[in-house]
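Open question from group meeting: does this chain pack into something compact, or does most of it stay loose? Before anyone orders reagents, we agreed to write out a predicted structure and look at it together. Recording both the input and the output here so the notebook holds the full record.
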Amino acid sequence: MTPLRLVFSLLLIISSISVAQARTVWVDDQLYLPVRSGAGSQFRIIENAVPSGTPLEVLEVGDSYTKVRTPKGTEGWVSSQYLSNQPIAADRLRTATRQLEETRTELNQVSEQLATVTEERNNLQNSESSLSNRSEELQEELQRIQNIASDSINLERRNRELLEDNQRLRNDLEVLTAENERLEASKDSDFMLLGAGLVLGGVLLALLVPMLKPTRKTDNWA
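C-alpha cells returned:
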C-alpha cells in the first residue's frame, strides 16, 4: 500500500470515528456547569455558568469527563455525571407543552375545517333540495306548456276544419242562390207565359162569343 493511500485510509477512519462520536448531550439539572481545559477538576475553567438544559456536542468520551463543544464554540471538558442523554425535565415539559399547544392549534384548525366542510355539505344539500324543487317546477311548467301547445294544435286543427266547413257552406249557399235565381227567373217566365196565354184566350173568347150568339129572325107580322 502506498503512503498516499495509507494517509487517505487513516483520514477516512478518523472521520468515521468523529462522525460516530458527534452526538448531543444536555447539561443536567444543575445551576451551572464549568468547562475545563482538561479532564479533571485541577484544570482551569475556560467557560463558566453553562446553564442546565444547554445542548453540548460530544467530541470525546473519557472515564469521568467528556470533551464537548458549547453553543459558543468553546471546546473543553465537563464532568460526565452532570450530562444527560435527553433534555432536562423542564425542557421536556416546555417541549411537551409546545407540542400540546401545536396539537391544540391543529385540532382547532381541523375542527374549523370540519365545521366548514359540514357547512358546505349542508349548503350542498340545501342546493340539491332547491335544485330538485326547481326541477319539479320546470317539469310541471313543461307539462303545462306541452298541454297548451297540444290545445293550440287541436284548436288550430278545429279552426281549420271550421274554415273548411264554412267554405263548403258558402259554396253550397252560392249554388242554392244560383238555383233560386234560376227558379225565380223560370217562375217569372211561366207567369209571363201564363198571363200572355190568358190575355190571348180572352181575346179569342171575345171574338168567338159574338159569333156563337143566335141571329134574331125577322118578324113577318111586322
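Observations to bring back to the group:
Helices lie at 3-21, 89-212.
Residues 89-212 form the longest helix (124 residues).
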